[in-house]
Amino acid sequence: MQAFFNANFYSVVAAIALLAHLVIDWKQLFDWRNAKKRAGGLEFRQFLVCLTVFFVADVLWGFLARWQCPRLLYADTATFFLTMALSVYFWTRFIVAYMAMHGGQRGRLLWIGRVLLAFFVGALAVNVFTGHFFTVDGQCKYVAGPVRQAAFSLLAAFNAYVSVAALPMMPRAAGALRRRCKMLIAVGLTMAAAILVQLGDPFLPIYSLGTLFALCFLHVFVVEDERDEMHRQELLAREYGSRLEAERRANQAKSLFFSSVSHDIRTPLNAIVGYSELLGHGAPDAAESARYVATIRSSARVLARLVDDVLDLSKLESGKLEIIEEPAVEMARNGREALALLRREPSIDFVLTDLWMPELDGRGLVQAIRADASLAHLPVHLVTADVEARAQATAGGFTGLLLKPITLDGLLSLFV
Fold first, then answer.
1. Nearest CA to 150 among 171, 174, 126, 129?
2. How many Å apart are CA 251 and CA 276, to the nearest integer?
């Protein structure tokens, strides 16, 4: 009666673990295409397939023991231990890929996985003749052998080693890698504890329950990684879309620019060609000839500016255009408006003013600036066409004088 109870209890718990496993890991089990895209995705799927077979064998074990099928029970038990070893083997391969391990640590883990698999396969093969791993008699009585104890001890040591190996990685890990280290520690400790408890009683489904809890931890961490990866892909897709839209707008603006330039080039070019032909045929008088030459020169300057714009666009596309930021210029219609603007915009550091202005002329403006402590430091230059106004400008509080017509050299001379 006790054996009957144990078999039923064992199968029920194993069936619950199998159902929970299928619900939790359904997507990872059957999403083959996306599995290849993730780091360690293929190895993780192989690990889950082995665990699925392991849980099925665990469920069948209780029913076969109850139905008194010794040969099938022996085969099922051997399948149970073999899939256990295979799951550990694929687990090591998944860890190496998932954690992006290199060097000695990678080699050690892969070597441990192969040794454990070889140990289980060899022990199960020899067990057919010796019964040192386990035995099943004609009454379906299961007896664990000493090799089983050694095999479970090795599995517990392996899981403890994985947890200990992940600990030194924690301080220097960040983000997803730190989360993966936590996952390895949680899964390794859970499985090591479950195996140690299972050593005491082979009829308690502790290993299956420990595997289920470990899968829950694993699912949480893997799903978080998938969400992070999806978020990263979305950001990349948005960035790529924005870049494509920017390129489309740039190409559209460039096409519009060249269309406009090609049209604008015709006007000065036609003028140059036309007036050159007129000059070639002879102008009616000297004044008319001078007008033709002036028009040709003006059109040539316009054409030169258009060519410069095209060359600037070419330099801009190749990254060779040097962009010089021009200073902002504030305009005022009279002295009173200029004074209000200076008090409102403390960033203004240079003033050009005319002598004659409505409401407040140049003299009144410079006196108001010098009387205001917050504006007294500003250089104020008088702009005039009167050469004789130099002395008047100096006496009136102006910093300097700029003669009309204003030229670039004249402006630059104010800063020397």
1. 126
2. 37
